Amino acid sequence: MRFPFGLVVAHARKGWFRSVLTAGSVFIAVFVFGAMQTAVHSLDAVVQDSSSSRMIVESAVSLFVTLPTKIEQELKTVPGVKETTHWTWFAGVYVSEDNFFARFGTDVESMRKVYGKEIDLPDEAWDRWQRTPTGCIVGLDLAERFNFKVGDQIPLKGNIFPGDYRLEVCGVYKSRVRSFDQSTLFFHHKYMNEVSKQNDGPRDVVSIYALLLEDASMGKDVGDAIDSKFESSRNRTRTLTERAFQQSFVTMWGNLPVFFNALSLVALAATFMVTLNTMLLNGRERVKECGVLKTLGFGSGTMFGLLLTESLVYCLGGAILGGLAVSNLNGAVVPRIELPLHVPADSMLISVAIGATLGILSGIAPARAAANMNIIEALRRRT
Fold this sequence. Notes:
It is a single chain. By secondary structure, the chain is α+β, with helices and mostly antiparallel strands. The protein folds into two domains: 168 residues, no CATH class; 175 residues, no CATH class. Strands 1, 3, 4, 5, 6, 7, 8, 9, 11 and 12 form a ten-stranded mixed β-sheet that branches. The chain has a two-stranded antiparallel ribbon with strand order 2-10. Strand 7 and strand 8 form a beta hairpin.
């Protein structure tokens, strides 16, 4: 006899509210799981995509302690250093303090030499930025967020570096690697320094130096040479590979991967209890129906398949929708920490696997009960 697929649809329509809630719980669990795994994957991508031929020089006291601009010439004389540039955290306010995004003062020419392979920016935009003292470039995500276009004016109110700044957008860059986010604004360090001087703020200082090495294998020797050079000075340094520097940012947030994984497992466990309870109720309500179907000639295998199919339909439906929702996170940016999200390539496959696993585990107990049910007892039972 043919498998009664129509009964699966009929049961779902009859208890539509319960069906929606069951599929919805799976959707939420899969979405939470996928979002957490996406965050872990994105954090790992920032570290893994970091260049092995760059090193970061920061203050040995703290990342929040600045270094003087005068030491850049000394850094250039260290054997193995090919190019140097610098980034300075500006902070400041754009219109409102709620409009948070990263803003750095830098040197255009040297930044192009050190980070030119990571930044996809037309030559004319680089040249325009170089020629415009108040010019800046913005990442694609930032431009889309605030609708910035080339030629627009961006007013900034300085706090660490006091003063009123008015920047002109000279270009919108895209990132060629996942470790370089598209939610940052870069402008001339010279302009920042001049305005800050005029308002009695910090001057001639930078947050970090970025070094491009002649050979990636020279990293340890270069780092040791730089740190020993400034060991006895007022400006002690700590020199790290770019990967180690990025990793330090990840660890600042604690052991996030463990927390995210634990949260994901809790969500899946809770959903499993919901779906199992739903399928047990479905099986209990189908006792007499199973007896009738067996009387009509449907075997135990059909009864087993009927209950298991219902469970798979609910769970796979919710899981597929959850996987689609997770895929829409790709390219989004986590606010405040400015973390660009990169959804793993196998995200949808994992979502389907989770849905199938939940469906089988939730449906196997009531399915076995239906398959082993005695016809006479089923017809006599009151539900």
